[in-house]
Amino acid sequence: MTTEETKALLVIDVQRGFDEPVWGPRDNPGAEANIKALVDAWQERGLPIVLVHHDSVKPGSSLRPGQEGNHFKPELDGVRADLVFGKKVNSAFHGDIDLDGWLKTRGITSFVLAGIQTNFCCETTARVGGNLGYDVTFALDATFTFDLAGPDGSVLTAGELSKATATNLHGGGFATVTSTKEILGTL
C-alpha cells in the first residue's frame, strides 16, 4: 500500500444535536465547511472514511439513538463511508466496533481526525490513537467545541479549550495538529 492508501479520515460526532442552544457558545464557525472539504477530498481519492456518532445513554439527550439530534449533519449527506458506527463514551476506539482491529486489518497506520467536540471525543480519540501507535493528524479547524465551566465555576471559552487541546496533543506527542488547508495540500 502507498502512504496515501493507509491514511483514513475519522469524522467524529458530526451530529445535528450539537446545533442546539443548550450547548452554549461555540468556536470555529467554519468547522463544518472544513469537515466537508476533507470528506470531499477523501471521497475524490477513494480513501477510507470512518464516520462515528455518539449514542448518548442520557434520557434527555438529543444525541440518543432514535432522536433527530443523533443524525449526522447535512455536511455528511451522501458520504460513502467505509465504516459507520456508534459509541457511548468519548473515544472512538471504545465504540460499538473494534476500530483498532478494523484499521489494522486494512493496513491503515495513520488517520486524520475531524469532528465534534474538540476537547472531548476528538481529543480523546487522538490520544488513544497516538497511544496505540497511529500517526494521528488533528485538523484543528475542522473541529469545534463549546464554552465550559470548571469545578470552581470559572468558564473557559471554546477558543481557549481548543487551544488547550492543540497544546495537549502537540506537547504530549499524541498528534500533529494542523489545518485543513495543510492537510489538503499534502494529499
From TrEMBL:
<dbReference type="Pfam" id="PF00857">
    <property type="entry name" value="Isochorismatase"/>
</dbReference>
<feature type="domain" description="Isochorismatase-like">
    <location>
        <begin position="8"/>
        <end position="149"/>
    </location>
</feature>
<keyword id="KW-0378">Hydrolase</keyword>
<dbReference type="GO" id="GO:0016787">
    <property type="term" value="F:hydrolase activity"/>
</dbReference>
<dbReference type="InterPro" id="IPR050272">
    <property type="entry name" value="Isochorismatase-like_hydrls"/>
</dbReference>
<protein>
    <submittedName>
        <fullName>Isochorismatase</fullName>
    </submittedName>
</protein>
<dbReference type="InterPro" id="IPR000868">
    <property type="entry name" value="Isochorismatase-like_dom"/>
</dbReference>
<dbReference type="InterPro" id="IPR036380">
    <property type="entry name" value="Isochorismatase-like_sf"/>
</dbReference>
